Structure formats: C-alpha cells, structure tokens
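Hey,
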Amino acid sequence: MVGATVAFLVGILCLSSGLSSGTSGFLLSTALEFTSRILYVVRAINKNELSLNSVQRIIQYSTEVEVEEPHCDRKDPPAHWPDSGRIEFDNYSAKYAEDGEDVLHELSLSIKPSEKIGIVGPSGCGKSTLSLALLRFILTSNGSINIDGRALSDTNLDAIRSRLTLVPQDPTLFSGTLRSNLDPHGAQDDSVLWAALKRSGFARAGGDSGDEAAEVGLDSEVASGGSNFSQGQRQLVGLARALVRSSKVIIMDEATASLDDESDKLVQRVIREEFEGCTNLTVAHRLETVIDFDRILVLRAGRVVEFDTPLALLDKQDGTFREMVEATGNFDALRRAAGGGESGSGREQ
C-alpha cells in the first residue's frame, strides 16, 4: 500500500513537471522499489537489535553471573579418595542463592560404605536438591558434608564432580560415537569401554531390537541428544558411563522414572549387580524401586522425617513411609519385597 501510494505520487509529479519519458521511467521504477527498500531497512534494524541483545547477554554473563570458586592445590584430595564411600551429613543446611532461604534444613545422618539408600518424599521435598548438594551445585549455609572423613567444602569442585557419579533421569548424549560419549577425554582403553557397555546391558538390549542394533559397537553413531536410541537405551549408556568412572559413590536421580516396566527392571538389575561395592543413593519416584534397599531416607520440606530400614519404617504405625506405601495399594507385596531385600542385604560394615 505504501509502495503504491509513493509510485502514484511520483507519477503525478512527473506529469505535472513535464519531465522526459526516460527520467519519468527511472523515477517510477525507483518508486516501485521503495517498499523493498523499506523492508530491507526494517530487517537490518531488527537484526542489529538481536545482535545487541547477544552482546548484552555476554556482558551480563561475564560481569553479573557468580563464578564458582577456582581450583586450589591445597584442596586437592588424595588420589584414592573416596576409597570406601562413607557419607556423613553434620547439621547440614543449604540454599540456592546467597540471599535466598534454606531449602535443606539441619540434615544429620550417616551412610555406611557400600550401603544402598533410597531417598523418597513428596514433590518439592528436597530429594534432587540433596543430590545437587553432594556435588556442591548449591550453597552451604550451615554444617558440612563429609565423604570418607573429608569435608566437601575443603575439596576442589573438579575433584568432587569427577570422582562422584550422578546418573540423571534423562542422561545427556552428544552427537558423535558411543566411545566419545563414554569417555570424552579418551582416557580409557577400548576394552574398558566395551566391558562397561556389556555390564550395563546396553549391548544385550540393543541386540534384542533388530539387526542394526545387534551390530552396536564403540564406533556406533550417536545422534544429538541420543535421538537414535530409546529412553531405556539412553539410560543404559548413562549407567555404562558410571561403570567406566568406577566411582565409590553413585547418585541416581530418578533414573528410572520415565522408563517402562521392562526397561526399569533391566536398569534395576544392573544397579544391584554392577554397583554392589558402591555407596548408592537413589532418588526414587517408584517405591518398588528402593523397597529392598538397605535403608530409606524420607524427606519433607527439606528435612529428615524418617531414616531406617524399609521393614522398620513399614512397621511404624502412622509413619510417613508406611502411608506412602499404603497409598500405592500394594502394601502386602511391597512389604514382602522389603523383607526379602532386608534378609539378603546384610553385609559387613
């Protein structure tokens, strides 16, 4: 509409001014291009604004975002740390920001080496926050966390995050190969990586899904986000990563919440068989996932409500964990599973 109006006005001016036909034609063709010129200017201005937004974000990230503490040689732990996996929370409280409120409150508990701990509670109770606290992703406001006698606050972040292993609900896979996803730094032999894939059950799970999967190897392609694998297979790759790292402390943050029953059983078998010598903290959505663990930690609003063996908690009248199990409608079956797990979980501490 604007371009047509401009062309009309230019035509009237050409006629009234008695310009030559060549000059009038040139002016009219230029007027007809007016709209495209205006659009080009608008696009250029918009692109410039977007570019300036990017610059603004870069400046914000470089000047306003809090930077984690730098590496300090004095805080390097011994090469063998952690060697047993004993975890102690001593009146520990934590928050997400310096000016924020505590999200974990005065946690005091001790976890023995190689113990399997199920962490349960309602949504927002602090289960995943506890996992973040172990990796020092949140701020300590009081107390301490000690692993094998060493305070995490006196340990470099890179040491903590390289020697403790977190298996999240949805493992992040990068485009490349299985080899690069299992060992990004190329520090392990192929034999170690392949053994981890076999122990995790990934090769067996792949072999059951078709000829292409049956030929899985370390050079098998991984699409961005692992989109060429099922959710269960991605989770098995996450477990294989944990096996490659050989950590003494394994944190499972609702690792099976989005899996179907068959995949969940496979992952649970791998956890019980392959991480037997590790201290295992499992944040659970399904109670049957942790009902046969050594002990159950029940959280509510960032506080410890109960912490005992599954059978002890189920026998506790009006107990929080008992109420949660009763709400599933499978109390008897879960109690039998808890009894079987407790009888078979005895170990020297």
